[in-house]
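Allow me, if you will, to draw on your knowledge of protein folds for a short while. The matter concerns a single protein, recorded as an amino acid sequence and a row of backbone structure tokens. Could you please explain, in whatever detail you think fit, how the structure tokens follow from the sequence? I remain grateful for any guidance, and I place the record below:

…
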Amino acid sequence: MKFLPLTTRFAEQIISLIDEANGEKINKIKNLLNNDGNRNILLTEKEFEEFNKYGTRTGWKKHKDWYYRTGVDATSLSNFIRIIEQNINN
């Protein structure tokens, strides 16, 4: 069995969420990932522009109109993956 690196798995889940889920589902998972605004993991383009107004934020990737954090430790990535998996089909 081949295992994907956590960063790859997380990126694939985020891309799948953005491509396949409806806006309500994306916002629910976004709020869970962002801990209701206490951290920034998944942001809209407008939110990211405000968050990165000085252009110094690194460790982010963009898919469509969304930015997601990539510079995250393995434990956090595991937790974020679990959040997505638990809520994607609910």
Notes: The mean pLDDT is 94. Residues 6-20 form the longest helix (15 residues).
